[in-house]
Amino acid sequence: MVTGQKKIQRFLNVKNLGGMGTQAPTLKRELEKRGHEVFIDGKGRDYDVMHYHTPLVNPLLLHKVRQEGTPLVIHARHIPELVLDSFKGARLVYRPYVRYSKWYYNTADVVICATPYVIKVLRGLGAKSEIRLIPNSINRERFRPDPEAGKAFREKYCIKDDETVVLSVGLRIGRKGIFSFIEAARQLNSGKYRFVWVGKGEIGLNVVEEEEDWPSNVKLIEFVPFEEMNGVYNGSDMFLFPTYAESYGNVLFEAAAAGLPIILRDIPIYEDWFKHGENCLKFKTDAEFAGAIQRVAGEKGLHDRLAQNSLRLAEDHDLNKAIDSLCEVYDSLKGGKS
Fold first, then answer.
1. Which of 203, 205, 204, 195 is nearest to 173 (CA)?
2. Architecture of domain 5-137+319-333 in CATH?
3. How far is the C-alpha of 115 from the C-alpha of 134, rounded, in Å?
4. What distance in Å separates the CA atoms of residue 69 and residue 338, rounded to the nearest whole number?
5. What is the CB neighbour count within 10 angstroms for residue 144?
6. Could you tell me the pTM of the whole model?
7. pLDDT in tens, the chain (338 residues)
8. Which CATH code, of 3.40.50.10420, 3.90.1140.10, 3.40.50.2000, 3.60.110.10, is assigned to 147-316?
């Protein structure tokens, strides 16, 4: 598996590599349980299958891989719209990145997409490679209901028992909806609600820094170790995800696996799996987000129904199902190297 993590961390002081940084090691561990020998950013190119998780590749090296006949799998973790509003100069590189994405995904034997929406995006770009739908999926042994872990999280961050915690997790950038999160907190700054945002950003991103006029009920936590994240979800009462664009959104499914009611922005990527009023509430405006938070906090029946259906959604995205599908892809390609 090629992620480029070592190179990135060698030159930049980067802690958070996002879903790629946590999922690739998880896939490696689970695939090895099924008998596959997996290397992350290994040396050389003598492998049965090369699996790229990053678009930041050396085109000449990729060309050599293809010339040598090594089967190539590319995980479509990055689509062009994710570039917008993420770092300085993003709009200048957007159009070249669209053209690059078309070339990049067309080099693969198989492209793995986590959602039906990403498949539509890639086909719209002109990708002709074979595409498989394999959700990123959740390790439900790690992310699960755990009241004690939730209690420890609240104690660590001095959150009162009677405070309703509205959680969001992700890079603190405009694309993730941080300003909608802050506005919802402003509208509900009554002492009852605590808005917790976990995550900040890295060098080069348009990180939104805290401002003096932000409401007092907002708590920013820059970094929580991955091993402690289940406690963060369990110590919260609901998950607000006001993002404008995603390719999957691992944190959304982690929250679901912990049994949190979910409120999210109504965007096309989630039209297939998330159904308004069944396993989530979907809205588009800041006022609607604030109203939804009040409803979930005040209507026990709604809260419990959304929580139970979140757990069912997480079951459908169980990691073992994804590993089964990935093994099928590898097995179909192994031996293809000439």
1. 205
2. 3-Layer(aba) Sandwich (3.40)
3. 7
4. 6
5. 17
6. 0.85
7. 787 655 444 434 445 455 566 778 888 999 999 888 998 888 777 889 999 988 888 888 888 888 888 999 999 988 888 887 677 777 888 888 899 999 999 999 999 999 999 999 999 999 999 999 999 889 999 999 999 999 999 999 999 999 999 999 999 999 999 999 999 999 999 999 999 999 998 777 889 999 999 999 999 999 999 999 999 999 999 999 999 999 899 999 999 999 999 999 999 999 989 999 999 999 999 999 999 999 999 999 999 999 999 999 999 999 999 999 999 999 999 865 54
8. 3.40.50.2000
